[in-house]
Amino acid sequence: MDVRSLKNYLYWLFCQFELITCSYLMEPWEKLLFYTFNITVLVTALYAAYSFVPGHISTAFQLFLHLFGNQRESAVSVVK
Amino acid sequence: INHIVHNGGLYKRPFNEAFEETPMLVAVLTYVGYGVLTLFGYLRDFMRQWKIEKCQNATEREEQKDFVPLYQDFENFYNRNLYMRIRDSWNRPICSVPGAKVDMMERVSHDYNWTFTYTGRVIKDIINMGSYNYLGFAQKAGTCQEAAAKVLSQYGAGVCSTRQEMGNLDKHEELEKLVARFLGVESAMAYGMGFATNSMNIPALVGKGCLILSDELNHASLVLGARLSGATIRIFKHNNMQSLEKLLKDAIVHGQPRTRRPWKKILILVEGIYSMEGSIVRLPEVIALKKKYKSYLYLDEAHSIGALGPSGRGVVDYFGLSPEDVDVMMGTFTKSFGAAGGYIGGKKELIDYLRTYSHSAVYATSLSPPVVEQIITSMKCIMGEDGTTVGKARVQQLAENTRYFRRRLKEMGFIIYGNEDSPVVPLMLYMPAKIGAFGREMLKRNIGVVVVGFPATPIIESRARFCLSAAHTKEMLDTVSVSSCLPFAHAFYKQIQLLPSFGRLIQCLVHKLVEP
């Protein structure tokens, strides 16, 4: 029962996508072109996220550590 | 905007009119859709020019290719790339009387709406939500039809002349006296075509040196008549009395543009019900302004005559005003009376002048006798002079249908424009793909609707327009409103407005996901 309503819901979402981007009105070869372009862009974006985002996050994390680490050390030295 | 009703106020009943703002998300998504279609339009035009694809639309001949290009403007681009894709929702051929249910000839297209072929099948009993059949007089059986058939056997179908020559029948005289009595004016004159009534009589009433103040959303016939007259035209915002008053003040204070002389005549052009918006004119305020600034009022009651008012006498009756305040009352017989033609009513001097000087009276063929008899019988029925209460029952049924249908659609969450009491119900669709999808899906469910897109409405505000009728039963209205909630539910629009935060929206979607 849950699977059926999930399938209906996904079909509804797909219909909304088709209507909003007007792929409902396109001829089959236009739809193929449009979906290929969309999926390519999406896959490229996901791959870029997968390969570069951890690197960026670790660099940013290191930068923050460097900044706050320096401060803590200097504060500690003053107290001493 | 609700006007508070109090003693001495202009409005004797609440005036509820609403034009909801387009939700921001919907506007953005509509532009996205149009953007995608434009890109594909450019691609297809490129392919057509480089002969990769067969060119099926109109182009210039080879010899004319070096001249000024004819088909490069936006209208033609829209026509061949956007309109062609959804063209099957318009010009559908019907083959029975357009009553509450209608028969339609089925047609298919094998090359994406460039050509159509008839399959030969007739789709029967489609619920008709598109005809202007407000009081249900479009019938093929009944008193109106019998009277018209009798007159057809007496007078024939053709008149073969204009009003001023040999085309003035005693039926026309009878009709005009009846129309004058119906409206409560001194005299009236009937013409063969409603469009021609407006476009041919406004030039007879105003000329150069006069000022026309016309509403933003006036019908093409009024615009054409105003332009043909040669008068100066100024536009005020739709149903906006502050804008109208400002224009009137400027006109009186400054006069004509170069010479500063006073205007010969100031004519205000308004309509009773605006058919694309479903809004009703603010007639008490217009009349108050007209009296204050000494101008004339031309009221086009094409959609409101017969459809509004406790006794069906139009927008003047609806507001409880006196017909003497409106200088020129124009209307058509096409909508509520189930016939064809138009009329103008007013003071006797005005109508006598129009009998001589109107282009339509001099050059256009007069009304056909069976059509005149249909108008006479239906008008007598509405007034109650045929001895039954059928007319009154129809007017009340239309008012009930209007209130019920509008309430049902609003409860379902659609955005509906216009006044609470107008039988024209525009349901907003906004996105171009939904125009085509709505028309087709409703036809699959045996309901015929009229969807309206770009040239008739602003580009993002496309809509489906329902025209209610006294002939619709409650079951039909229930079927239509339930079917409107199609699998691609438009009720999403209202939810966006009611949920201010995006988080609530996600919560709502997740709730939809897990409900059994």
Automatic annotation (TrEMBL), chain A:
Q: Name one GO biological process term.
A: endoplasmic reticulum organization
Mode of membrane association: Multi-pass membrane protein
The metabolic or biological pathway listed in the UniProt record of this protein is:
Lipid metabolism; sphingolipid metabolism; Sphingolipid metabolism
Q: One cellular component GO annotation, for this chain's record?
A: serine palmitoyltransferase complex
**Keywords assigned by UniProt, alphabetized:** Endoplasmic reticulum, Lipid metabolism, Membrane, Sphingolipid metabolism, Transferase, Transmembrane, Transmembrane helix
Q: Where in the cell is it found?
A: Endoplasmic reticulum membrane
- UniProt cross-references to Pfam families, sorted A to Z: SPT_ssu-like
* GO MF, one annotated term: serine C-palmitoyltransferase activity
Q: What stretches pass through the bilayer?
A: 32-53
**Chain coiled-coil ranges:** none
Which protein family is named in the record? Answer: Belongs to the SPTSS family. SPTSSB subfamily.
Quaternary structure and partners: Component of the serine palmitoyltransferase (SPT) complex, which is composed of SPTLC1, SPTLC2 or SPTLC3 and SPTSSA or SPTSSB. The heterodimer consisting of SPTLC1 and SPTLC2/SPTLC3 forms the catalytic core of the enzyme, while SPTSSA or SPTSSB subunits determine substrate specificity. SPT also interacts with ORMDL proteins, especially ORMDL3, which negatively regulate SPT activity in the presence of ceramides.
Q: What does this protein do?
A: Component of the serine palmitoyltransferase multisubunit enzyme (SPT) that catalyzes the initial and rate-limiting step in sphingolipid biosynthesis by condensing L-serine and activated acyl-CoA (most commonly palmitoyl-CoA) to form long-chain bases. The SPT complex is composed of SPTLC1, SPTLC2 or SPTLC3 and SPTSSA or SPTSSB. Within this complex, the heterodimer consisting of SPTLC1 and SPTLC2/SPTLC3 forms the catalytic core. Within the SPT complex, SPTSSB stimulates the catalytic activity and plays a role in substrate specificity.
The protein in question is named: Serine palmitoyltransferase small subunit B
TrEMBL record, chain B:
* Sorted UniProt keywords: Acyltransferase, Endoplasmic reticulum, Lipid metabolism, Membrane, Pyridoxal phosphate, Sphingolipid metabolism, Transferase, Transmembrane, Transmembrane helix
Task: Provide GO CC annotations from the record.
Answer: endoplasmic reticulum membrane; serine palmitoyltransferase complex
**Localized where?**
Endoplasmic reticulum membrane
Its UniProt pathway annotation is: Sphingolipid metabolism; Lipid metabolism; sphingolipid metabolism
According to its UniProt entry, the protein's GO biological process terms are: ceramide biosynthetic process; sphingosine biosynthetic process
**Entries under Pfam families matching the protein:** Aminotran_1_2 (PF00155)
Q: Which GO terms describe its molecular function?
A: pyridoxal phosphate binding; serine C-palmitoyltransferase activity
Instruction: Tell me where on the tree of life, at the top rank, the source sits.
Output: Eukaryota
Report the residue ranges that make up the Aminotransferase class I/classII large domain in this protein: 124-479
Which sequence ranges are marked TM in the entry?
Answer: 24-43
Cofactor dependency: pyridoxal 5'-phosphate
Which Enzyme Commission number(s) are listed? 2.3.1.50
Topology within the bilayer: Single-pass membrane protein
Say which family it is in: Belongs to the class-II pyridoxal-phosphate-dependent aminotransferase family.
Which protein, by its recorded name, is this?
Answer: serine C-palmitoyltransferase
